[in-house]
Amino acid sequence: MKIGINCGHTISGPGYGAVGIIKESEHTRRIGNALRDQLKAAGIETVDCTIDRADTQREYLQMATALANREDLDWFISIHFNASPGHLGQGVEIYTYEGRQYEEAVNICANFAKWGLKNRGVKKGNGLYLIRKSKAKAMLIEVCFCDNRNDVDLYIAAGAEAAAEAICKGICGQAAEGMTQEPFEEFVGKIAKEDWEKRRIVLPSVVVAQAIKESAWGTSELAREANALFGIKKNGWTGRTYKKAATEQRSDGSYYTKDDTLWRAYDSWEQSIRDHNDYIATRRTDGGRTLRYSKVIGCDNHVLACRYLQECGYATSLTYGESLVRDYIEKYHLLRFDSGSSSNPCKS
Question: 223-237 pLDDT, tens per residue?
Fold first, then answer.
């Protein structure tokens, strides 16, 4: 099999991609480069059809398609990120000629949906130059909306490697690794509830929401390679670590990357869950004088607990606490893990 891969858009000037919370042109290349490596490891030949610079948008499209049409390809794949007016669009979608429901395209959408992205399905893409002019079967993948905070949070949590894997396994006829959503929720929820009943550190619904958000239902690179569901940096940890770039958000809403960040690594997901609660219970500031998450510990109100995590600086995402409530606890009915649990009142 031979596959042409186009990392969507140029890197500057005409043809440059959408700029939202993240930059499309930057992240299509992260995914595309990882995808080439993964396909090569699977014994599949790839052809780079990426164009970094062009004089016009049309020239970019013509050059990319020409590279693909020079080869006898089985597939021509173009990787993109979507954007929408008002930043309200959400989800993954794929365009094919006449909207043909190729098994590979359907599988790729399903793999991305496992992160929690809305599955917008496979659509008719005859109006797209790369789809219309390609000699080979072609698909244009819109990974998610780069200007929607929930979509970007899910993508950042999973990472470019996981995005490439979702595509690679879709092409190879495999589902992405990891549990399906409900078994993952039940796995984390059972451990979180047991720990809450014994130690009353973090409300179970909040722990489950954090695990889903930060690990994309156990499919992120950290979850797969380091058994880490929460993405906690080393911070005094004496156990195993895993090196991976960290994507952080500034106060103005823009993102930046810190390379070679060390993260805590575990022997199992259960160890990760329990260490997460240990971290919340023991993390100190002011030279050890103050418990950083004192307002979170024992709080029996999920809205307040999520707000306190945000206020105490658990994550740099500006909407972290709000997203936990709206996009996870309420959407997936995670309060079921709190029912029947005795708890302590929140500290105001």
Answer: 888 999 998 999 889
